[in-house]
Design brief:
224 residues; alpha+beta; Cytidine Deaminase, domain 2; five-stranded mixed β-sheet; 10 helices; 16% strand; elongated
């Protein structure tokens, strides 16, 4: 059924304008980004098909173009709309993290790191560099590895921290194929980084491990 045949208040775009975006389902939000469907399905049905195929909204929005465009009715232009929506969300969270005291709003930092790392196909190690008031100076990808591991060099982390003239750092890396559970190697690395950064009077405030189930904080676990 064409969306134009639906009652006006029930159409995704009109529903968003009337009730706000939080009232829409994932498929309805995707339908707003896509605007129209194809010859067989309306935009909402296409949105449902995409969510079902990729199993989550975040997996859909971060998927490569060739995977998304295998779906009938999806081409480069619509893929670009989906990616633009994802990037806007990521940048918005980064701005929130940068504008606040990272210690008083840890959820903004956690959400930004999850959106940045959760769907990466390989392990990525990031540093979030903070000033003396715990405000974010910048977030930077420091190392990139394979599906199961990445090599992190404490000396290089110290060099980047000194380059940014930071007072503290939040570390983060992802587990592309697993749960956000810190491994023994993660604990050893965190300890080595803490010791190396302490030599130049820079504190490690937290280390997040991001996986398919969310993000785990070393600080909340009492591992720092």
């Amino acid at each position: 059924m064409n969306l134009r045949a639906w009652p006006l208040p029930d159409r995704p775009r009109e529903k968003l304008l009337r009730l706000g975006p939080e009232a829409l389902t994932d498929a309805e939000l995707v339908a707003v980004l896509l605007r129209t469907g194809d010859v067989r399905r309306n935009a909402l049905e296409l949105g449902h098909a995409l969510i079902a195929r990729f199993r989550s909204l975040s997996a859909l929005l971060s998927a490569p173009m060739q995977d998304v465009c295998r779906e009938s009715g999806l081409g480069p232009a619509r893929y670009a709309s989906l990616r633009a929506g994802y990037e806007l969300a990521r940048r918005s969270l980064r701005e929130q993290a940068e504008q606040r005291d990272a210690l008083r709003s840890p959820q903004a930092v956690r959400d930004y790191l999850r959106l940045s790392l959760q769907q990466r196909p390989v392990e990525v190690f990031m540093g979030v560099f903070l000033d003396a008031q715990n405000r974010v100076i910048c977030a930077e990808e420091l190392f990139r590895g394979t599906l199961t591991q990445t090599s992190v060099y404490p000396r290089e982390v110290v060099k980047r921290a000194l380059h940014h003239n930071c007072a503290a750092v939040i570390l983060a890396h992802n587990h592309p194929s697993g749960l956000p559970e810190p491994s023994e190697a993660d604990r050893v690395l965190t300890s080595a980084l803490r010791e190396s950064l302490a030599l130049v009077d820079i504190r490690v405030l937290d280390h997040f491990v991001v996986g398919q189930g969310g993000a785990t904080s070393f600080a909340e676990r009492g591992l720092l």
